Amino acid sequence: MSKKTAIVTGAAMGYKDGGPSIGGAIALRLAKDGYNVVVVDLGEMGQKTVELIEAGGGHAVFIQADVTKTADIGRIIQTTKDMYGGLHCLVNTVARYGSGMMKNVAEISEEEWNATLEVNLNGYFKMAKYTIPLLLESGGGTIVNISSIESFVALPNFSVYSVSKAAIDALTRSIAVDFAPQIRANAVLPGFVKIANSENNRSPEELQKWHGDIALGYPMKRVCEPDEIAHVVSFLAGAESSYINGQSIVVDGGRMICDGHVF
Fold first, then answer.
1. Active site residues
2. What residues make up the domain containing 104?
3. Which of 46, 69, 194, 211 is deepest in the core (most CB within 10 A)?
4. Whole-structure pTM over 0.90, yes or no?
């Protein structure tokens, strides 16, 4: 293997026109760091991520796959081995969003609850379960799971999302304890991030106002860019974070520590 290889799930660019996404930004950053990148997503915009990586001189392949399906994960792992020989980093970014999950525990349907956990938790579990042997075979490596500050603070009427993110943090700690020192595992917990998939049909003027209103609750007085999450993932994936293991790293511009009262 001439260089390291990373798998990034949920790594498609924004579904509308290839706009910014957290997974896409992470894939681009790891490619810049010198990794071969296996871009995994259900959406066809994963190919756009590969094109951007290759335009920057990097190496990547897109695998259109469902991380809740064991057969698809087997295909991801086999393609990674065939193309690059091994694996050194797994970044789980995929997440499920939908209007049906925006309910409290009394109102959400069992179907919506289970469907969300199947992606947001079980997808992470299955990717870790089936890639860890390849990571160990390759000499060890890192796992970075994208969680959320909602694992610590509850967004009203968004129950299953908060539960899924808290479970990701616990899964990360379990992996960190069980597989150190060969594998380090950490979670990154963003606050609001400016991504294309949250824009809906807002006009540029509406987006500016929306982002501005959200920024008022953040000490930094602006919203996070996807690259700012990718920088942290790059650090956790690399040797400079060699003694950081099992941590939940909050990247929210100080939102969680901010008492918003005005006197």
1. 161
2. 5-251
3. 46
4. yes
